[in-house]
Amino acid sequence: MFFGLTIEKILLIGVIAAIVVGPERLPRYAESLANLTKRARVWISTARTRVKDEMGDDFQDVDWRTLDPRQYDPRRIIREALLDDAPVPARVAPAVVAPPAPQPRPIFTPGQPPPFDAEAT
């Protein structure tokens, strides 16, 4: 596939272009499309060479498949993270700690202001 196009779609576009352009201008347009393709290939190879020159020896160590943005499917990443067997932490025996003693509840009397905690506000 080329950008989501199938062979049938490409042929249909070619037939429509041939009808719209006409048989007398079609060879000229086909030639300019071929020249554009050649220039694009030269530009891509030049860009690749420049990147290799600028990055030096590190360029050979790059795994380009890991940098492919099509692999970053959020559903796949989440699925792999959820299905990944995470290491189970070793259980440590809990220390025996006595529960804290219950604090007596203050008794409020009518007319007395309630307690105020200055640090809580």
Q: What do you see in this structure?
A:
By secondary structure, the chain is mainly α. Helix content is 45%, strand content 0%. It has a domain of 75 residues. The protein starts with 6 loop residues before the first helix and ends in a 38-residue tail after the last helix.
Q: Compute the number of helices.
A: 3
pLDDT averaged over residues:
80
Order of helices and strands: HHH
- In helices, the fraction of residues equals 40-55%
Let me know the number of strands.
0
Beta-strand fraction estimate: under 5%
- The best one-word shape is elongated
Tell me about the largest β-sheet. none
Computed structural class: mainly alpha
Q: What integer value in Å does the Rg equal?
A: 36 Å
Distance between the termini: 64 Å
- Low-pLDDT stretches are none
